[in-house]
Amino acid sequence: MKVFNTLSRQKEEFVPLQEGKVSMYVCGPTVYNLIHIGNARPMIVFDTARRYMEHKGYEVNFVSNFTDVDDKIIKKANEEGVDASVISERYIEECRKDMKALNVKEATTHPKATEEIGGMIEMIQTLIDKGHAYVAQDGTVYYKTRSFKDYGKLSHKNLDDLRSGGRSLLVSGEDQKQDPLDFVLWKPKKEGEPYWESPWCEGRPGWHIECSVMSKKYLGDEIDIHAGGEDLIFPHHENEIAQSEAANGKEFAKYWLHNGFLNIDNKKMSKSEGNFFTVRDISEKYDLQVLRFFMLSAHYRSPLNFSADLMEAAKNGLDRIVTSVANLNYLLESAADGDMTKEEEELCNEAKEFIVKFDEAMDDDFNTADAISAIFELVKFANTNASSASSKAFVQALKDEITALSDICGLIVDKKEEMLDAEIEALIQERQEARKAKNFARADEIRDTLAAQGILLEDTREGVKWKRA
Length: 469
Ligand code: AMP
Ligand code: ZN
Prior knowledge:
binds adenosine monophosphate, globular, 14 strands, 4-stranded antiparallel beta sheet, binds zinc ion, 4-stranded parallel beta sheet, alpha/beta, Four Helix Bundle (Hemerythrin (Met), subunit A), 469 residues, Rossmann fold
């Protein structure tokens, strides 16, 4: 398997630190709002990479954080007059629902920054002790960028160039920096902000230190893969490398993977321009499987344009696979029991070619676009060769292959496995009873379970109505 490593700007053979195991850290969202479809891109593409590596037999330890202390969270909390944790907890819950609806697997560990402050203080102290950080008069702790000789190795930036353009890096209130390139590890509290005790001042951590610390705690000093959107290369990931490698004295991550940006109608996504969609917005119009399919129809490193037409095309593409599987399910009901004929066995061997193509595409830096083409070829093959005269074993084999490849991409194409109407009705009934008994927690839980399955509930005068999204 080859992966494109931002460090070397080349595709490299993937060799894990420990045979058969992969440690992987993906920078997660800052939780101050519902996630937007740009945030969904790294979630979907790196979940697919994980699924493929698991399919290849690797045991993947997958860590992805929630950034739950940040200026934007604090601003929103002050606007609503609530604690910052009310905002972050609310949007962590919402984010989890979206991830579930996108069929993104639960991370092995999903740490929150605010629960890891002790580790951050420890790493900052180590950096001070080793001469890589200093405490300014106001208690701010800065990382001394020029103390780390490899600074710039990930983003391929030259320190002198950065420094000459450094004026723009100076943020007001950070005038006690020794060098414009130095960055904050710990900053003093301001009025109305959450804060923690530390040896330097009551305050809170800078953003970059949280990932260095959570990655170390849950995956160790050296990890295989660190990933996120390409906007994170500089300064976030560059700074993470500077912190971790200076503190631990080891290479932080072997492979750095970055996804390209998602644009809308060929423009940068922007709230003020009105071209901005949350995952929730999209779920009102489409099954979120369509959004997942859309994201995977391009290579993860390419920029990706989102438009209504392209979503329609994705919907049609996914429908082709779903319809083929539904047709195979239909054939299975009436197909004759018994073994495959010789001819069917040969056809099955022929179909292996598409599986090989799928694997080759995924082995080539997770080329999901080509991998999906291979699924389409298999679908076409199944549509041509399975008929009411086929044996059950043959139809089942074709169906199993299509669903297995789709599953590696996190695509659910066998609608038979989805919740049946009767199960939905039973849950709605249980929810009504829970509400009557004032067990609102259970009632909400059922609503969420149904929402994750794409079932929308509507309370009407005639009772609860439901529909599939
Ligand atoms: P943030 O909450 O801004 O830190 O973003 C969380 C993740 O989403 C990071 O990996 C970002 O790089 C990624 N991301 C944000 N916007 C986009 C976008 N428009 N396209 C692709 N990835 C994005
Ligand atoms: Zn990070």
